[in-house]
Write a structure and sequence with these properties.
Distance between the termini: 17 Å
Order of helices and strands: EHEEHEHHEE
Number of strands: 6
Protein name: Immunity protein 22
Low-confidence stretches: none
Mean pLDDT: 93
InterPro entries: Imm22
Helix content: 10-25%
Pfam families: DUF4284
Number of domains: 1
Largest sheet: 4 strands, antiparallel
Number of helices: 4
Radius of gyration: 14 Å
Strand order of the largest sheet: 4-5-1-6
Organism: Thermoflavimicrobium dichotomicum
Shape: globular
């Protein structure tokens, strides 16, 4: 759900940036109505503002949360907070990151075949 000042983190693996984009992109009906993306379906998300989403697909997988989050908006603020709740070394390697800003994910789905929800922190 939309919530100012929070960011929700999802990590996983994609074969390419295009595959990641396909996973998070909405399709539209002939009437122009948006259809939920696979990401939204997987995590039972009704809506989030795409203008407040950041994604990355790295060439190489890592389990170092600091490496995965470096370079994102507010990284100096969010990296220590996510490390505090997840630990610096994750128990899985990932090459793809999805961050939803101004979004407090409170769904009960923590993991799918492709991605895993790690948590939500305040960034401002």
């Amino acid at each position: 759900m939309e919530k100012e000042g929070f960011v929700s983190l999802f990590i996983g693996n994609s074969h390419s940036y295009k595959e990641l984009q396909d996973y998070i992109s909405n399709n539209y009906t002939e009437d122009g109505d948006a259809l939920p993306s696979e990401f939204e379906k997987d995590f039972n998300i009704d809506y989030y503002d795409e203008d407040f989403r950041e994604v990355k697909c790295y060439n190489k997988s890592s389990n170092d949360l600091r490496v995965l989050l470096e370079g994102f908006s507010y990284d100096e603020e969010i990296i220590p907070k996510f490390i505090e709740i997840c630990g610096e070394c994750l128990n899985q390697e990932a090459n793809s990151v999805i961050l939803l800003y101004n979004f407090l994910y409170n769904g009960n789905i923590n993991e799918t075949n492709q991605f895993r929800f790690l948590g939500t922190v305040q960034y401002k």
